[in-house]
Amino acid sequence: MAPAERTGYLGLGSNVGDAAGHLREAVALLEAEGIEVDAVSSTYATEPVGEILDQPDFLNAAVRIRTALEPEELLDACKRVEAERGRSFDAPRHSPRPLDVDLLLLGDLELSTDRLTLPHREVTTRRFVLVPLLELDPELALPDGTRLAAALERLGPGQRVEPLGR
Asked: What is the rounded distance in angstroms from the CA atom of residue 155 to the CA atom of residue 58?
């Protein structure tokens, strides 16, 4: 029996080279990995967050996917897509990168391993994640029932997220 398909959400980001091209190519590469891309959000220009703030702005988007891959298999596919677009995994955390593909949500799975936490631990605290996710699904909630629209409201001002269109 084939594994059941799940709906998931990935966050895409880039701030090196042709950032818009990296995001577009990520969608094609995900599909080449056998991951069905159902919907792609608008692209947003966002300010860097995390440990290294002195770097170019990011372009961010979210994609809704359908996949039968298990969580760690999906993570591996995301890492292959990042590598295909030139990401170095030796660079410091939060440094500039041509492509970042984050596994944010996968069905109603809650998981914590050495490599992967689902839902992504930053999904409710980062405006650049929440805005494109809510564009794809305004009613989206975490497995524990936390509504992402409410999480966005709680963030208050800050973390510039400027829509650029599709």
From this structure: 19
pTM above 0.85, yes or no: yes
Catalytic residue among 97, 127, 137, 147: 97
Whether residue 1 is contained in a domain is answered as no
Give the pLDDT mean for 144-159.
92
Catalytic-residue membership of 97: yes
Q: Which domain holds residue 65?
A: 6-165
Note whether residue 52 is domain-resident. Answer: yes
For 144, what's the count of Cα atoms within 13 Å in the CB-facing half-sphere? 8
Active-site residue, 87 included = yes
pLDDT at 91: 75
Domain total of the chain: 1
Annotated catalytic residue within 6, 64, 100, 126? 100
d(CA 113, CA 147): 24
CATH of the domain at 117: 3.30.70.560
Residue 80 has pLDDT above 80, yes or no: yes
Mean pLDDT, all residues of the chain: 92
93 is catalytic: no
